[in-house]
Amino acid sequence: MRQYKVEYSNGDGIDTAFVVANNREKALKAFHLKVAGVDDDQVLGVEPASEADLRARMEPEMEFGDEPIAPIAGGGPRRRLAPAPRERGGVLLGVLGIIQMIAGGVLLGDPTLGENVMVANLQLLTIGQTLFITGAIFAAVQWRPR
Question: So where are the chain's domains?
Answer without folding.
Answer: 2-69, 92-142
